[in-house]
Amino acid sequence: MILQRSSSTALPTSRIIVLILAFLLSGMCALAYQVVWARMLSLVFGSTNQAISTVLAVFMLGLALGSHAGAKLSRRGKNLGIIYGWLEIALGCYALAFPFILSNMEPIHAAIFSASYDSQLSLALYRFLIALVLLIIPTSLMGATLPVLAQYIEKDAGKAGSRIGILYAINTFGAALGSFSSAFLAIPYYGLNWTIYFAAILNVMVGLACIFLLRDTFMESAEKPLATSNKKKKVETRKDRLDDAALIPFALPIFILFLIGTIGMLLENAWSHALVLVFGTSVYAFSTMLTAYLIGLSAGCYFAARYLLPYCSTRFLAGLLILDGLTILAITPVIGFLPAWFVTIFGDMQAQWHMVVAKEFLACAALMFLPTFIGGATFPLCLHIITRSRQNQSVSTGVSTSIAYIWNTAGSICGALVAGFIIIPLVGSERCLIIAASLALGGAAVVLLGTKPQTSFRKVFAGFIFLIALTAPVFFTTWDATKMNSGVYVYSKFFDSESALEREMKNYDLIFYKEGSASVAVLESSLGHRFLRVNGKTDGSSEGDNTTQMLLGYLPYLYARNTADALVIGLGTGITSACVLDLPVNSVESIEISPEVVEAAGFFSALNDRVFNDPRSTIRILDGRTWLSSMPKKYDMIISEPSNPWQTGNANLFTADFFRIAGNKLNEGGILCQWIPYYNMDSSHFKLIIKSLQSVFPYVHLWMSGTDTFLLSSMQPLEINVERLSHLFETSDVRKKFEDMHINTPGSLLSFYYLDNNSLQTMTLGITSLNTDSFPVVEFHSPKFLLGPNRPDIFFDILEASYASSLRISDSELDTNARYLHRRNFYSHWRIPDRVTEEMLRRSLN
């Protein structure tokens, strides 16, 4: 048996099976917790890069501290099987209580946020402390399980590298299962809370099984030296000998574990930033990448523990680091060809969703497997050296395992923070990958130069490797940033071949590109039109999206009782905020989560100059939802225009919970204007968002422009102010913008009005559930329709319902028939078939 102990009495097969299942399920539950807790905390802290990095750092810090505590527990020499069982039970119990604990922490965070939002350092510190309070107990329990179970399985520290390496591989594979099952099964069909409950119950069951099945096995005290006996040494085969593991300096495996942890997180962050440009920002894209990453780590750990320990030496470790660095350098240019590959595979729009995910997983696995395999292999190799080091002969298995785990985790914390806050924002994800390769090569040179005996060849070779490490970040970049930002995961349907993609992207110049919390680009076409792209997808432009961006700014003005204070969530190009500033308002606050987007908005100055120069305008780089939920201020108009609801991070701005927060922050007679696109969306999901909005606001009107809809919502009855409607066309700046959109009269503006409150309620009668924070149906199910053809069913549903909608305006020039006649002009621009336009006119006149 692979986990059989080296003591005279082997563990029974039944207990080996229990241990394997226990640590497999433990890893699965731990990753599920990480996914769900991170999502829950993002609803409180926000989805900013700083908030996410803070949660991740606290999570890993807790694992490291827990591992240290677990090492102390393992030295007691008592029944470690029972201790392990109680750790699992305690973790499950805390998980069950987590939603309640978090809900009580929200008011504390809100108070702190409102007092410190303008100081990034103070806010980061407070969030770190809150996250520490929330996560330190469960993550410490998770971290403590490995050294405790390690000591239980293998009391001979000299053989820990093999058996504990296999144990760690099983746990990591369980984490891969947790990543997959939480994103693809548990959350989509049962929601966040039930995912926690499932994992918690599983933890408790594992704990109880260990308490009852492992209760009669007691370990001897590990305080005495665990050196191998003379008699045993005599019968060792060459394969089992120490080689030079005992001669390697104790600091060397510590250095390598820290380095590999750092490299691993640099790779994970950079791959995530790069691959979302190809696979998209849906929850499934992230889960696919994480699952492939963890499987590579698990496979490397298992293979090394089973087959590579006899060859462990400084030369072997240096060779692995060199292979790691060269592999990263070799596969990084391949990522630059992925947009063309994506178009070739999925450009015909015929692929089923599960086939899309499967092929994306295979692509991720092909790219990540060898670097992650090598990263995983270093853990048992370094643990083997630590346990056999002459400086560490008297240390128990649990303590040795803890040492290895802590230093590897410390490197991971360092890598995550450095990648997210320094390297990627400064030099981008491609150079981040190359820097990771350079660290591997540089680490290999250090290993070669730091051990004896030294030879001239070794020094020269180490110097050569170090030279490659220094020059690689300068000379090894190959990606075409324009092609990488082509947004193939959304737009591949428009390209029938790789050559078509090449021809299309040659029509654009990249005038701005920066990576950070997102990859943000500004492209300029040969006609001079500019497009803002976030993670490859167009989120605004100076042509094409103008009507949507401007209507979002002007429509709330027609309904709001007062117009003193306005809030715009999602700056984008800044055009919407600039339109609000055309109105008689006292203040306009624009909340943008990405500092890169704010910088990119400067390239649309011809259309948004007011946003940066008007004293009434304030731009805040914060999470819009966190701002609304935490600040006591109320508004007369709230305009929400995030990116699409299927995108992770933006999805929480399309839930009933967010609409409730927004409703509470409106003054009496205030208006929420919510942008909802219906392209690439199933009709049921579109109606689900509207139903969620109706669950908060009793009065809702729908306006539509092309494939974009605008939901004007209020707690009081909605009525268009005719005087303000006229005022818009009397204001020269506004009238000029309307004319650019071919809106020449108040009647043509009202042609964008479609559904009144009663028609919308009729339209959503069959919808019985809501899109909520705890059950985010749209985020998890709408990506399945992303690559399919645009379906006109939502448009026809809205058009059909519009015939029964009324608009109570006394002016005869603005009556219903006039609105329908004006629509004809826009339908030709929207490429609506003539037969549809003729049928609409016939029905409206009758």
UniProtKB/TrEMBL annotation:
<dbReference type="Pfam" id="PF07690">
    <property type="entry name" value="MFS_1"/>
</dbReference>
<dbReference type="InterPro" id="IPR036259">
    <property type="entry name" value="MFS_trans_sf"/>
</dbReference>
<feature type="transmembrane region" description="Helical">
    <location>
        <begin position="51"/>
        <end position="71"/>
    </location>
</feature>
<dbReference type="GO" id="GO:0004766">
    <property type="term" value="F:spermidine synthase activity"/>
</dbReference>
<keyword id="KW-0620">Polyamine biosynthesis</keyword>
<keyword id="KW-0472">Membrane</keyword>
<dbReference type="InterPro" id="IPR029063">
    <property type="entry name" value="SAM-dependent_MTases_sf"/>
</dbReference>
<protein>
    <submittedName>
        <fullName>Spermidine synthase</fullName>
        <ecNumber>2.5.1.16</ecNumber>
    </submittedName>
</protein>
<keyword id="KW-0808">Transferase</keyword>
<dbReference type="InterPro" id="IPR011701">
    <property type="entry name" value="MFS"/>
</dbReference>
<dbReference type="Pfam" id="PF01564">
    <property type="entry name" value="Spermine_synth"/>
</dbReference>
<feature type="transmembrane region" description="Helical">
    <location>
        <begin position="125"/>
        <end position="153"/>
    </location>
</feature>
<feature type="transmembrane region" description="Helical">
    <location>
        <begin position="361"/>
        <end position="383"/>
    </location>
</feature>
<feature type="transmembrane region" description="Helical">
    <location>
        <begin position="273"/>
        <end position="304"/>
    </location>
</feature>
<feature type="transmembrane region" description="Helical">
    <location>
        <begin position="165"/>
        <end position="190"/>
    </location>
</feature>
<keyword id="KW-1133">Transmembrane helix</keyword>
<feature type="transmembrane region" description="Helical">
    <location>
        <begin position="83"/>
        <end position="105"/>
    </location>
</feature>
<feature type="transmembrane region" description="Helical">
    <location>
        <begin position="433"/>
        <end position="451"/>
    </location>
</feature>
<feature type="transmembrane region" description="Helical">
    <location>
        <begin position="404"/>
        <end position="427"/>
    </location>
</feature>
<feature type="transmembrane region" description="Helical">
    <location>
        <begin position="196"/>
        <end position="214"/>
    </location>
</feature>
<feature type="transmembrane region" description="Helical">
    <location>
        <begin position="316"/>
        <end position="341"/>
    </location>
</feature>
<keyword id="KW-0812">Transmembrane</keyword>
<feature type="transmembrane region" description="Helical">
    <location>
        <begin position="246"/>
        <end position="267"/>
    </location>
</feature>
<feature type="transmembrane region" description="Helical">
    <location>
        <begin position="460"/>
        <end position="479"/>
    </location>
</feature>
